[in-house]
Amino acid sequence: MPSLSRQRLADRIADILRAQMLTGALKPGYPIHERETAEALGVSRTPLREAILILEAEGLVETAPARSPIVADPSLEDLCDLLLVQANLEALGGELACAKASDAEIAGIRKLYERMVETSEDPDTVGFFKTDMAFHCAIVAAGGNQPLIKTHLQYNSRLWRARYMSSRSRTGRGQTMRDHSEIIRSLEARDAEATAAVLRRHLFQAIANITRILESEEQSPLP
Amino acid sequence: MPSLSRQRLADRIADILRAQMLTGALKPGYPIHERETAEALGVSRTPLREAILILEAEGLVETAPARSPIVADPSLEDLCDLLLVQANLEALGGELACAKASDAEIAGIRKLYERMVETSEDPDTVGFFKTDMAFHCAIVAAGGNQPLIKTHLQYNSRLWRARYMSSRSRTGRGQTMRDHSEIIRSLEARDAEATAAVLRRHLFQAIANITRILESEEQSPLP
DNA sequence: CGCCGTAATATGGTATGCCTAATAACAAGT
DNA sequence: ACTTGTTATTAGGCATACCATATTACGGCG
Question: Which stretches of chain B sit within 8 Å of chain A by CB?
Fold first, then answer.
């Protein structure tokens, strides 16, 4: 085993499991058996258990006594709660970005916006969606508030799947693109209030979308 | 060993360590040696390591490769960042509480307020301070947003020490009590905007206090 | 006398094994 | 045939033993 590892094995395992949740290899509700999963990853149970602890703290898996940990399967209500908090975190991030971001950082955010415009007609939903997420993260990151960045990231990972489904099903990306256009504009104008307001509105829109989607697909758990 | 434990040993260890941080038995910067601490607690290294993982995710300890984990020692800037996020979390919690709290819950919050009034002249700083914390937590809890409650709790535990120091040194509790009076009033009026505004202002005040205190005691790390 | 290299020790990271408890399956009795 | 009890298997929780690495101290060489 190459000991190039400059970080703990548990962290890398957590990364792998997180990635598997994003790709859908690990779906909500799936159990994560210790021995099985550890063997599949070629590691022992100890670091796997530690990885589970990390993911549990992030709200991505849920554990119960004498039960295999399972991939978190948030209810519609949970998702709305998460999104509401996320909306406020991003609004704060936007405010801070207006005050503290360097011109280079804002330029970088515009770059992401432009890539979204370019790919907004692509059939490749994943690429577009990832850029969308990166756009939002970049705004919060530009605010420079470390705890906020980290918390926002965690909420994002818990919301990833729901927002991805929302992004896929939403027939028109028109509203999304218009919102983003407003966001980058108010950000470049360094108008903190406007940026916060539009980010909040954008996330509230996401709540509405997800509600609509999950209510319609409520009893069709995809395989 | 009595197997009355309905929760994991790691969780209980994390609770113990958290408590020791609050009482000051574990001060910021202190290393937590695995073998030593495990033996002191009468447990093996495995659950202790898992407890460290939990506390690390909460931001209460920091780990580095091949180094003993150390109790987090946030800089003044870190504390300001944390408090800024906390202010917004509480503002959101207050808004939600206005919309969703039951009359009984608001009555319970008033009870806490009244206990603060009663004990506001006591020399017992800890009792007063704990009631203060409980007051804020109860407001957020009344909002009913689970992720928000949990995140707010985590930020609180990271801020506990700083806010406690602020509470001790602050000569007059006048402003605090006036703020709290306003908070409970707007909460009972279910005025979401006013509640959010005053909570935000109250926390901003805390930022100012802590800044003043830490700047004056910057180079006197208490033993 | 000082600096560098090597060795020893201490500490965190990982693997493995045992223990306990929960669940499921099978058998026996009603 | 159904229900209940017992047993076996599975799986998670904890402890321990081993490994790799980093740091420090000591000794030798310049």
Answer: 6-8, 10, 46, 49-50, 53-54, 57-59, 65, 78, 81-82, 84-85, 88-89, 91-92, 145-148, 151, 155, 158
Chain C bases closer than 7 A to any CB of the protein: 11-17, 20-23
What residues form DSSP beta bridges with A62?
A: A70
Instruction: Name the band, by pLDDT with cuts 50, 70 and 90, for residue A174.
Output: confident
Strand, coil or helix: A99: helix
With beta carbons less than 8 A apart as the criterion, state whether B141 and B100 touch: no
Our separate counts of H helices and E strands in chain A read 9, 2
Between the alpha carbon of residue B82 and those of residues A178, B134, B172, the distances in Å are: 32, 18, 24
Separation between Cα atoms, residue A91 and residue A190, nearest integer Å = 13
pTM to 2 decimals? 0.92
Q: Is A88–B85 a contact, with Cβ atoms under 8 angstroms apart?
A: no
Stretch (H or E) spanning B71: strand B70-71
Percent above pLDDT 70 for chain B:
93
Virtual CA dihedral for A187, A189, A195, A197, nearest 10 degrees?
-160
Above pLDDT 70, what percent of chain A? 93
B7 contacts in chain A (CB < 8 Å): 65
Residues A76-102: tens digit of each pLDDT: 999 999 999 999 999 999 999 999 999
Contact flag B92-A78 (C-beta cutoff 8 Å)? no
Which residue in the set A8, A57, A89 is minimally distant from B57, CB to CB?
A57
pLDDT tens-digit map of A110-161:
999 999 999 888 877 888 899 999 999 999 999 999 999 999 999 999 999 9
Residue of A127, A138, A152 lying closest to A105 (CA atoms): A138
| CB B49 under 7 Å to nucleic chain C | yes
Residue B83, pLDDT > 90, answer: yes
On strand D, nucleotides with any atom < 7 Å from a protein CB are: 11-17, 20-23
